[in-house]
Write a structure and sequence with these properties.
Elements lengths: L17 H26 L9 H7 L8 H6 L18 H11 L8 H7 L1 H6 L35 E4 L8 H4 L10 H17 L3 E3 L11 H15 L5 E6 L11 E3 L2 E3 L2 E5 L10 H18 L4 E6 L12 E6 L6 H25 L1
Parallel strand pairs: 1-2, 1-3, 3-8, 6-7
Antiparallel strand pairs: 4-5, 6-8
Amino acid sequence: MHPSYYYQYTYRRYRPRRGVKLITGLFLLVVLVFIAAHLLSALVPTLAQGEHWLLDALFLWSDRDPRGIIRVGVPLIAWSGDGEHVPQLVSPRDLIMPIARAFGVGRREPLQILELQLPLLAAASARPEETAPVLAPETVPQLDEELQTPVPPISEEALVAIYNTHTGETYALTDGMERLNGKRGGVVKAAAALERELVEKYGIRVARSDDINDANYSTSYARSQETLRQLLEDNPSVQVVLDIHRDAGKSRDNSLVVVEGRRVAPVLIIVGSDARALFPTWRQNYEFARELAAEIEKQHPGLCLGVRIKEGRYNQFLHPRAVLLEIGSVSNSTEEAVQSARLLAGPVAEMVKRSLDAD
């Protein structure tokens, strides 16, 4: 090759396009605002609920609103939540197992990959022998027909208070959705079943409210606090307070336990703490919850999943024996939750008697 021939290279420095810079900048801005909002929320935990409604609306979420199905399909975003609602807990195993199961789709059928992301589809396609019978909602109140004539009450005053902060929570296998907005869902039927069993089988009078407290979801606990205050004011002899909920994003397999040969919804006891707001007596509630869990295990082994401490107060500061009960999850049927509620009556009755004896 002649020496005069040569190649000339021109190097140009890569510069991102203006659109890329704009998108990156907006993304970083959103991240910074998100972090700042959460820091502000953590630094000012005692603000009245109405005073930080904007932060709640923009940055906080709960597994109990209609968008929860997305959080079930994408567990990684379930790390957040506000101080009063009970978000789904996500462990490393919860994050890894759905991905691992996806590689085994070929062993069964392609439909499985859709079922992994849409729990309602999995419930609809379950084999008959794998799913407990589901009764229509209007037939559920008839489940207690075998109860005998009510026994004489052990007190003329109500000894147990029952209410539902998230009144619209319901069970997808029966109602086909997570929540009945502005209505009474399956958790109210479970609460009613517990009340009836306590009254008719154990002679314990119950003060129960089915007031709708979650018409405005972001103020559910403020509204239910008014409900509970009224219950306690009208019934000063109450020994035990129960706020009946149901869990959110659990698979069908993790939403069933076998108790006395029957498949029913598991029960998880939630206790609040002073992590976010003043609650100096929360350990009294915790000790009561532990005693209740032990009594449930004694009478009905396998029914109770134990006690879990959360950061919110859940109105439990109003009574030393107030707890939140998660009866089943969105993947249960109303019938399964009602059966579990009936099983809870015996342990609750025992705790009431212990409290009366101690007094």
